[in-house]
Amino acid sequence: MAIQSRTSHGYKHAGATSVIAMAACILAMPAGAQAQDVPTASSPVVADSIAVAAPQQTTPVGPEQVTAEPAASTDIVVTGSRITTGGFTAPTPTTVIDANAIAANAQPNVFTTIAQLPSLQGSTGTSTGTFSTSSGAQGLSSFSLRGVGAIRTLTLIDGQRVVGANVTGVPDVSLFPQLLIKRVDVVNGGASASYGSDAVGGVVNFITDTRFKGIKGNVQGGVTTYGDNREVLLQIAAGTSLLGDRLHLVGSTEYAHEDGIEGGGLGINLASGRDWFRQTTLINRNVFNDGSPQYLVRNYSQQYSYTKFGLITAGPLQGTAFDQAGNPFQFQYGSNGVPSRTASGAVIGCFPGSCLGGDLSGNVDVGRSLQSRLQRFSNFGRIGFDWASDNEIYVTANIAQVKTSNQPIGGQNRPNLTIQCANPFVPVSVQAACASAGISSFQYGTSNAALGSTRVFTDRRQYRFVAGAKGRQSVAGSDWTYDMYYEHGTNYSNIDVNNVLLSNRFNQAINATIVNGATVCANPVARANGCQPLNIFGGNPSQGALNYIMPEDGPYQRTRQTQDVVSINFSGAPFSLWAGPVSFAFGGEFRHEFYTVRADPYGAGNAATPNTPDYPADPTLLTGGNNWYAGNYKNGSGAYSVKEGFVETDVPILNSEGAGRAALNGAIRVTDYSTSGTVWAWKIGGTWDLPIDGLRLRGVTSRDVRAPNLSELFAAPTTTTLPGFFDPFRNVNVLAIQNTIGNTALTPEIARNTTAGIAFSGSSRLPGLSLSVDYYHIKIKDVISSLGTGDIVNLCFQNILPETCSAFNLNNAAGPNFINVQAFNLASIDTDGFDIEASYRWRRPLGLPGNFTLRALATNIRKFVTDTGLPGTIPIDSAGVNVGNTPDWKWLATQTYANDSFSLLLQERWFSDGVFGSQYVECSAGNCPVSTNNRPTIDNNFFPGAFLMDVGGTFNFTKQVTGYFKIDNLFNKEPPASPNFVNPSLYDVNGRTFRVGLRFSM
């Protein structure tokens, strides 16, 4: 095989057929998505966007059916702009998902429906974060546009900010009121000049129905084809108007429960009979210049540093394993491996750290939850009073709670232990073998299957209150709208970890001896503080030992975050020019963000959190914290304030039959951060409705900003346990702790965001057809980022960046092995690509009653280049890297037929084949160049894409009662084998899922 630098672009032909098919579909495509509500001041709509087709909407309102409304109803509020005057069209491409489309997708959480859009890459939900103990992101539903991260995507409710559900500042969409959502606007472009910090990738704005009247509800249940992740969803909303239609009352309450998908224990068998797991590993041979690839992708990898019930891993007794009863036997190494029985612990015939095949019963990865268990309560209420025509004061309250739980990994593996041969728990035959070999101790590793697996519980509670006023007043002969509000939000996040060991107590408990004929802990200080000896040879520990090493009160973290926002905005058109009225918007905002976090003394340290009766002082533990196997939370607090003001204008420059209509739109915002000073954001763009019926050009370029969040600035160290981290210095896998700490010297990220495109819609010659193609380019400077743990170690090991050597210790005799990670303004991100969106609605297809609607959305990422900015490194293009979240191509297509009695829906989700990493050079044995840190060699750099189909439908029993069903992943497409276990950001880990439900209205 010839040497090949195979990047994702080398595989684009693999998806060519699908892309061509999609393009053909688009050319035939439709604009049935144009059935939108008549714009009103209380229920704004977004211009120049394509709304999702609504299967239940059997008689959609077309442009020819729009009826007159009061003057106030001509205002259009465009997400991504503060201009609210009639006739304004935003230059930034916006996708609209209406309530009917949300209902048709029949998901237990609206987040899942929105996250299926191709431009939303890297969003997190209940299937992500499940492998973690300490991240605090388990079950957190947050959006990421363009793959630049949730922290660079601004999520709003009715154009207003929402308190963060995590110290990164991102809200949890699961906490939002969902049944009252009227539509969701997704702005695919920078909007910092209009909305402030964080809107680098774009904006996701949830618009609620503030004038809902009546009662409506939804009851839904679901289950996977494997019989797990049972779902229940109960929703009800009510609204009315009183006092001559001046007092408006709206409220909703919701309950949702998802069982989740548990871990599969130890070995290679996943939960409930799923069989796609292959224990795939990216094996590092740690050899760079022998003509063979440094990295090998292999299935059924067997780590030989531990087994299910224990293994002697080095020295003359290497290869002696133990069964559940504690009986020794000869371990079956994969790859026909033979233990070297040397101090290095190497296995002849195997790779460093692992063999292939053999006894895999002790592998821990299948113990990870595939989806978090989730329980959600949400309550929402709004009271609005029209104190005058077109003028309203209102208050809203959103009180919600989300509870999740997950199992991050199977067992609690401990490699590299030293056991004394005289330990009374060592079987007599092994003690005799020690004597024969002339040794007094041996190296040992165990998955600790007898200890059970750790469980993480999160509890997020949101209390959000808004008081505001909005309306219209005449000033100097022209109408001006105003919108002002005060928001106070508090989020409490509790994390509790059960069934997790204290590392030093474990070390003391396994070091047993005999005193006065009794087996006890060898350390008298440990004995005096309650130590109970632990037998780790087999699977029969005493309850006393379990209570000692895994106390009932485990790690905890208690976080409180608050957000206070005061905002005021005005918009009007004070005068006109030759082409029409000139519109202005201006306003200001003050925002204060605060957080505090407290943790248990064993994780945070005695100085941070004093000992209590539940966490008594123990001289065998580290006073500085980091005592838990996982879940070493820390204390911290921080706050910052933001003051900002903006001006935006829209100036028409053309308005004639021969030249069409054109306007320029621009905005500027000045922002003062208490932590990092003053920054400016701006945008300039325009639209041109060509004299060709239905054709529009649009473009905008902007300077956007993102300030460092509370976590990046002030976060107390967060820790992540790395149970099988490869130490290249010793060619062994070790247990290590990753410490991530804040940096108060961080400055705002600065982005340049450009979009340009063409849209076709509303043509009298081609009614029902809408099509848009937009190019985007985002370049972010001073990106707040940090090196990965593997990079930190490798840059030191290969002597590329010796400064990183002080950031870790993988052979730490004084405490746990660690790698310190800290963020800096070093990196840059440069990405560009295309968005394609099309829809077509065919009324009375083939003479049948109802409508047939086609719709497709696609995103092509041409490049996604990240430059760490560190010496000795090169930029990495992650476009097409399918172990991440930025495939080359991703699209979503739907076909719907709906009439007065029933509807049917087909939906296809697809993304293209890709690679493990574009930095790799793919080659075969005897044909590889020298492998380097920047251009490592690999034997297989292919990672497949996926195609999934969903089907759904509704049946109207009466005008008020509708039954429905939905089958997701109809053909039960399984995720591919991955060295990262699985990538739930792209692949469906649940399998085929069935849902049925009933909607009603009164």
Structural class: mainly beta
Low-confidence stretches: 1-76
Quaternary arrangement of the chains shown? single chain
What level of helicity do the residues show? under 10%
Biggest pleated-sheet summary: 22 strands, antiparallel, barrel
Distance between the termini: 69 Å
Number of strands: 47
Could you explain the architecture of this structure?
With 1002 residues, the protein is mainly beta. It is built from 11 helices and 47 strands. It has a 22-stranded antiparallel β-barrel. The chain has a 5-stranded mixed sheet with strand order 1-2-4-5-3. A 4-stranded mixed sheet has the order 32-33-37-36, covered by helices on one side. The longest helix is centred in the first third of the chain and has 12 residues, at 16-27. The radius of gyration is 30 Å and the shape is elongated. The termini are far apart. Residues 1-76 have low confidence and may be disordered.
